[in-house]
Write a structure and sequence with these properties.
CATH class of the largest domain: Alpha Beta
Number of domains: 2
Strand content: 15-25%
Number of strands: 15
Largest sheet: 7 strands, parallel
CATH topology of the largest domain: Rossmann fold
CATH architecture of the largest domain: 3-Layer(aba) Sandwich
Structural class: alpha/beta
Strand order of the largest sheet: 3-2-1-4-5-6-7
Radius of gyration: 22 Å
Number of helices: 16
Length: about 425
């Protein structure tokens, strides 16, 4: 048994959080002792495994600010992760054999004071996630970007979520010595199997079996380009015959956190867009669906729309593939690795016209749509299944433990010879 501590910034609802929770559960199922330390965990806005006792959660530093006067969010994230790491070193009695952190690498040298065995999971270089701005902001980012590259190199193993992220990381950090390994995120299909087979068809007081619908699932963030789904759907309605048009809707479901200002603002913008396009009766907005609600939505939809451009990986396409649903996604980033165009889904440009054409092809051809869904499920099982994810991650733990054991033995032999 290996004692593993995960250090994660905010344990809310999102792709990064889903991966951390699934990784923790996977290692627990491999009989390792696992816990998570985070700076924020809202029990009303999180994944069930973090509140039902499956994984022990420690929250520390929730009082620390997320921004300073609406700015410096990256700096605040660094400070919070450092604070969590210091807590682990000086105030936590648990002595982990391996620490796994993600999103912010600056804490790695601090964590190494507790244990030399560290794994860093890079979802995407923070350097590229930060938006360009004023000269002052660019100056402020220089030391943060330097620290990110320097500290990423200090991990024993660096994992990334896709070949796309691996290429981006290596091309961004020219002095990166360590070679990243690709560990595709997965979903705990053992748990989802139970949800999938128990799904009913009433959700949020809406009987979703009484109409056909396309489904968009993403956090309410501007970078997710949800407006493309709305605009494409508007174009689609004009192309369909009256029977299809009358029975078709668009459901937009997304993570919505009241402490995230952008969620509130973007939700209002999308609602206003729908009003301007005069399709209010055709579009349904849902906030922060639970895992069970999300699977219900996917199971009963015609297809899933995935609109982010250059998404690092994207967990939603996997959830759709698990449910035998075709995905229409932008032909860039992670979806190029999960979706095979014309065989398990459709890839298109990030435009309303392209999405509209793909939606038309699926809604007017049931046989083609169902064929894509069946092939998507098969691809999920072969490449992105939870057992594959579990074995690879557990293998990384064994690799670190064996490496340090071998080094220790070599040092002992060297001392004996001396």
């Amino acid at each position: 048994m290996v004692i593993v501590t995960f250090v994660h910034l905010d344990l809310g609802i999102g792709g990064a959080e889903r991966l951390v929770v699934d990784a923790a559960v996977a290692l627990k199922q491999k009989n390792h002792r696992v816990n998570i330390i985070t700076s924020h965990h809202d029990k009303s806005h999180c994944f069930p495994e973090t509140v039902n006792g499956t994984i022990p959660i420690t929250v520390i530093g929730d009082w620390l600010p997320r921004t300073l006067f609406g700015k410096f969010s990256a700096l605040c994230s660094y400070i919070r992760m450092i604070y969590i790491s210091l807590y682990l070193i000086f105030f936590n009695n648990l002595k982990p054999d391996v620490v796994i952190c993600d999103q912010v690498s600056v804490c790695i040298p601090i964590l190494r004071l507790k244990t030399q065995k560290t794994i860093y999971y890079c979802h995407f270089p923070d350097l590229l996630l930060s938006k360009s701005g004023t000269t002052l902001k660019q100056l402020y980012r220089i030391p943060l970007n330097y620290l990110e590259e320097k500290t990423t190199n200090m991990a024993n193993i660096v994992l990334v979520n896709s070949e796309f992220t691996k290429y981006t990381l290596k091309s961004t950090f020219k002095n990166l010595i360590i070679s990243p390994k690709v560990l595709y995120p997965s979903i705990n299909n053992q748990q989802l199997d139970q949800i999938y087979h128990s799904c009913d068809t009433e959700l949020y007081d809406v009987k979703i079996n009484e109409f056909k619908y396309f489904l968009s699932i993403n956090r309410y963030e501007r970078k997710k380009n949800i407006s493309i789904a709305i605009e494409a759907f508007t174009l689609l309605l004009d192309k369909l015959n009256s029977n299809l048009r009358s029975s078709l809707k668009l459901i937009i479901a997304g993570g919505y956190d009241l402490i995230v200002e952008e969620n509130i603002e973007y939700f209002k913008e999308l609602k206003q867009l729908v009003e301007n396009l005069k399709i209010n009766e055709k579009v349904i907005f849902l906030k922060s669906p639970t895992e069970a609600e999300k699977i219900k939505l996917i199971k009963n939809c015609e297809a899933v729309l995935y609109t982010p451009d250059n998404e690092h990986f994207g967990i939603v396409p996997l959830e759709a593939m698990f449910c035998k649903k075709a995905v229409i996604a932008v032909n860039s980033g992670g979806p190029k690795e999960t979706i095979i165009h014309g065989k398990t889904g459709l890839l298109c440009s990030a435009s309303k016209e392209s999405f509209c054409n793909a939606m038309f092809d699926l809604i007017t051809n049931d046989e083609f749509r169902n064929k894509l869904g069946e092939a998507a499920k098969e691809r999920f099982e072969n490449i992105f299944s939870y057992p594959n994810f579990k074995e690879y991650l557990s293998g990384c733990l064994i690799e670190i433990i064996l490496s340090f054991t071998c080094n220790s033995l070599q040092k002992k032999k060297k001392k004996k010879k001396e």
